[in-house]
Design a protein that fits this description.
With 516 residues, the chain is an alpha/beta fold. It has 25 helices and seven strands. The strands form two sheets. It has a five-stranded mixed β-sheet with strand order 2-1-5-7-6. A two-stranded antiparallel sheet has the order 3-4. Helix 9 packs antiparallel against helix 10. The chain is elongated and about 85 Å long.
Length: 516
């Protein structure tokens, strides 16, 4: 029986070896990420994507001038996508599925270049089964695209360092510019790239860990330049990298400046980084503390095995983390999901460790990571909110309103200006919502994510017979949960006819007082 099992594992490995190295990780990633793709409702950040992507380019430009400039290019991309494929939950998330699929395939290729074929294959397979790959591969936000572009840019860097040419450096420049436009913080990856380029320039590609026997370093015009003209070739390599990153400063720099002016409003919910945030990071980016710990341990073994060849993947993991953490201790910037793009490089290191053992044993580790992540895989397909024990049921609240709505009804949200985006959540799930009676200028006209409300709620509510009140949280007495002049007006002129509790939300039907 043992011999049969070993034979089966050996046969499976032989089949895998015959396929292109990128294909099994890509197929596994797309299979995992499309499973339950539409199960979880759009969460608050995805609602912001929907709101922005369904605006005109001119309205998007005004939005970027007010808030969320850093995500503006992604919103523009999603605007084009939704014009073609619609704005259903699945349609909004498909770009992330495709990006994670490509990222897995590119990671396998990068691993094959830096380690060997086995290392690349196991790195890609491990990446595919991580809960974090599913979480951000099923989200209408830019993190999956950023992950793909970080792997692509790194692969193009390795190619350009091994076989320098202006065409290869131009491809690298395009990838890095795209990365900066999609996710500004992912540009911290350039610190790792700069380190590798500097060492390759100073000590040679072998010292930088980017040379192999199969890819000797040579210039296109001078095949023996590394031996006969080392100084000339070193200078060309470093200067070409510097020229390649100039477009980043020119094209992404203005976006960075604008985003910096919006930081206090955009990230007003973020706290300064603390040391214990670093210990929670592996679980945060992989969406599972157990799987994150396993990945970290195996990656450490891989780094030890690779020696100087670990410089690029180790730098691509540590330098972005340390730079963001250092900045986050001064300015509120530390958000674990901003660092999802470092996960492929941790998987590459882990793949190097798995390549050192027998193929069946390596596959057992990949399967174990998948099994350990199953509870989190199931949970993230129920809700994308965090903690997952506190979902927000926008669809359920919308169904309550749809079932009881009458002509002339109005709707009021409390609070309006919150990151829960109560109004967007109800509007997304309700094709014909009641009149948003307190709105004086909607979010599109304001060039914002939130609408402006009537400064005198009592006057704006006058003549309204019934109001649907949507309140965040669970409130047995929903009117008591509404603060300020809005709450005073509702309590004075309306009574509660019925209350519905839905996860994360309370819906109440208010009717006007007879003596009003």
């Amino acid at each position: 029986m043992g011999q049969l099992s070993e034979r089966s594992a050996g046969a499976a490995w032989e089949h895998l070896r015959r396929l292109p190295v990128w294909l099994p990780p890509a197929l596994l990633t797309v299979a995992v990420t499309v499973t339950g793709l539409g199960s979880a409702q759009l969460w608050r950040d995805e609602l912001a994507t929907w709101s922005a992507a369904t605006r005109s380019p001119g309205d998007l430009l005004r939005l970027a001038g007010t808030i969320d400039a850093a995500t503006g290019p992604y919103y523009l991309l999603m605007h084009v996508w939704t014009r073609v494929f619609g704005d259903s939950t699945i349609a909004l998330r498909v770009p992330a599925v495709l990006a994670m699929t490509v990222a897995a395939g590119l990671l396998a290729v990068l691993g094959a270049r830096l380690v060997d074929r086995r290392g690349g294959l196991f790195a890609g397979l491990l990446f595919a089964v991580l809960p974090g790959t599913s979480r951000y591969g099923q989200e209408a936000r830019p993190y999956a695209l950023a992950t793909m572009l970080t792997v692509l840019a790194t692969l193009l860097l390795v190619t350009a360092l091994r076989r320098p040419s202006w065409a290869r450096w131009a491809g690298y420049a395009v990838a890095v510019v795209a990365l900066g436009l999609i996710h500004l913080i992912a540009l911290t990856l350039l610190a790792a790239h700069a380190l590798v380029v500097l060492i390759a320039w100073w000590r040679g590609p072998a010292a930088a860990g980017v040379a192999t026997r199969d890819h000797p370093i040579a210039s296109r015009d001078h095949p023996t330049a590394s031996r006969d003209h080392p100084t000339v070739e070193r200078d060309r390599r470093v200067w070409r990298w510097l020229v390649a990153v100039v477009p980043v400063a020119l094209l992404v720099g203005p976006l960075l400046v604008k985003a910096r002016t919006q930081q206090s409003r955009q990230l007003d919910w973020v706290h300064l980084a603390r040391l214990d945030d670093l210990t929670a990071l592996p679980g945060g980016v992989t969406q599972s503390s157990v799987v994150g710990g396993l990945l970290l341990g195996v990656a450490a073994l891989g780094a030890a095995r690779l020696g100087r060849r670990a410089l690029l993947p180790v730098g691509a993991v540590l330098l972005p983390v340390l730079l963001l953490f250092a900045a986050g201790t001064v300015v509120p910037l530390w958000v674990p999901r901003y660092l999802v793009f470092v996960v492929p490089f941790a998987c590459l290191l882990a793949g190097a460790a798995l390549a050192a053992v027998a193929a069946p044993a390596a596959l057992v580790v990949v399967v174990l990571a998948g099994l350990l992540g199953l509870p989190d895989q199931a949970a993230l397909r129920r809700t994308h909110e965090w903690p997952r024990s506190a979902p927000v049921d926008y669809a359920g609240a919308a169904r309550v309103i749809a079932d009881g709505q009458r002509p002339g009804d109005a709707v009021v949200y409390a609070p309006r200006h919150s990151w829960l985006f109560l109004d967007l959540g109800i509007e997304y799930h309700l094709g014909d919502p009641p009149r948003d009676v307190l709105v004086t200028e909607d979010e599109v006209r304001r060039g914002d994510l939130w609408a402006a409300e009537c400064p005198q709620p009592a006057r704006c509510l006058a003549g309204t017979p019934r109001v649907w009140l949507v309140v965040s949280g669970r409130h047995p007495e929903p009117l008591a949960a509404v603060s300020g002049a809005k709450g005073d007006a509702l309590r004075t002129d309306f009574t509660v006819a019925q209350v519905w509790q839905r996860p994360g939300l309370t819906v109440a039907l208010l009717t006007s007082r007879p003596d009003r």
